[in-house]
Write a structure and sequence with these properties.
Length: 430
């Protein structure tokens, strides 16, 4: 990938329009992986267009799973429990979700496999899955006690009772996937509630799963059956447009078929509390996942503090919220966000550096940021730090800056949202 590609963002006057978005990345990964180990053909419409989900499909192919793209859908021929020993390493690209969640399935397979990733993924922490999967009986080795590449030798798993030390839906899902192959009932407890797509996806594919407060249980030995699904639009991609709309008091935006799962919709509550006009209509549910049409009307935006469980619920949306924080009246303070330092980039540092480049005052803290409101930004040269969400967040910040903003490494948007810049441009009024 050419990380030197640049996009120039010119200031805009307003934003208006209606659109639909590519399927949610978290759900696309999970449905693809479960489709691979289900019985029958799984048909997924509106599958995520991002390179991360293509990495998952690529790994599945290396594991002997046949799939094809037909009529805008991905059709996966499930192998029913047993994947094939791979002839080469599994390339997870930039995708932590692929590596962590697929490891759960590979822990249950009677063969050894290697998972590798790009430069950024090779630095991301994997001990969080290695420790519990090893406790279930998988033999896993990694570089430097916990960095990719990983070698997973699976089979002979036993259920565990596990309290997760980090709030991570990827880890929770990985353990529930491994639990399918374990003898006994696996129990995962989380201190902070994280997105529940793993639980809902397992249920959709026919598994029995029990949830009580912050704990989830799954019995081993269950068989999955294929599903047909239309994946709702990705709210973490919608976040860039919502925040762009929030910059202009006259903006009007409508996004249809958007994922409204309560564990992912915290941004809407937050933007309402900050003053944005938001209405939701046409709510429907498919396979337990809520979706609806969201209409947004711009108004002047107040400040807020994001901390505790809210930080976990908004983890992927914090970069763009931080990028628009200087334009709010009261500023935004972000706390309890140490996890942001081990995402596709160190997102606390990346946000602080780029806001400073645009002339903003910002306080960088070990586990967060404090960004005063009422500031004016000037166009600057922005470094994406190789991170899709940083590239897109600062494209949004540039819309109200004085002068042009140049986003270096803008093509990283392909990781989750290849059409981002095109769609953004089509909504702007200048
Ligand atoms: C995801 C969980 C989150 C999120 C990531 C997708 C998922 O990561 O940041 O983009 O699909 O489960 P963590 O599990 O590391 O919190």
């Amino acid at each position: 990938m050419n990380t030197d590609s640049t996009v120039v963002i010119r200031p805009a006057r307003n934003l208006a329009g209606s659109l639909g978005l590519p399927g949610d990345k978290s759900i696309s990964h999970r449905y693809a992986m479960l489709g691979a180990i289900a019985q029958g053909a799984t048909k997924l419409r509106n599958f995520s267009s991002g390179a991360d989900c293509a990495s998952t499909l690529g790994c599945l192919k290396t594991l002997g799973v046949e799939w094809e793209r037909t009529d805008g859908a991905v059709v996966i021929q499930g192998l029913g429990t047993k994947l094939r020993p791979p002839a080469s390493a599994l390339d997870c690209g930039n995708s932590g979700s692929t590596m962590r969640m697929l490891s759960g399935i590979l822990a249950g397979q009677e063969f050894a496999s290697e998972l590798m990733g790009d430069e950024s993924l090779s630095e991301r922490p994997m001990a969080r899955i290695i420790t519990p999967l090893a406790a279930m009986g998988a033999r896993i080795t990694a570089r430097d006690g916990g960095r990719p590449p990983l070698r997973v030798a699976g089979g002979g798993l036993k259920a565990i009772d596990y309290q997760m030390p980090v709030a991570s839906a990827q880890v929770k899902t990985s353990l529930l996937f491994a639990g399918l192959f374990a003898e006994g009932e696996t129990r995962v407890e989380e201190r902070v509630r994280t997105r529940d797509h793993g639980e809902l996806a397992l249920r959709a594919f026919g598994a029995e799963i029990r949830r009580q407060k912050n704990e989830v249980r799954i019995a081993g030995g269950q068989k999955l059956r294929a599903i047909e699904a239309t994946i709702p639009g990705d709210p973490s991609s919608a976040a860039f447009f919502f925040c762009a709309a929030a910059l202009f008091p006259d903006s009007k935006l409508m996004i249809g078929q958007l994922l409204m799962n309560p564990t992912r919709a915290r941004l809407l509550d937050l933007l309402i509390s900050m003053g944005l006009g938001i209405s939701i209509t046409q709510l429907e549910e498919e396979h337990g996942e809520l979706r609806g049409t969201v209409q947004v009307e711009g108004r002047s935006l107040q400040g807020t503090t994001i901390a505790g469980a809210d930080t976990a619920a908004l983890i992927d949306e914090i970069p763009v919220l931080a990028a628009i924080a200087p334009y709010t009246t009261g500023g935004i303070e972000i706390r309890d966000a140490r996890e942001l330092r081990v995402k596709e980039s160190d997102r606390i540092r990346a946000v602080a550096r780029n806001l400073q480049a645009m002339g903003a005052e910002v306080e960088e803290r070990e586990d967060g940021l404090k960004i005063p409101g009422g500031q004016k930004l000037r166009g600057a040269e922005i470094d994406s730090f190789g991170d899709h969400r940083i590239a897109m967040a600062f494209a949004v910040a540039g819309l109200r800056a004085e002068g042009e903003t140049t986003i270096r490494g803008a093509d990283r948007a392909v990781i989750s949202f290849p059409a981002f810049f095109e769609i953004l441009e089509s909504l702007l009024e200048r």
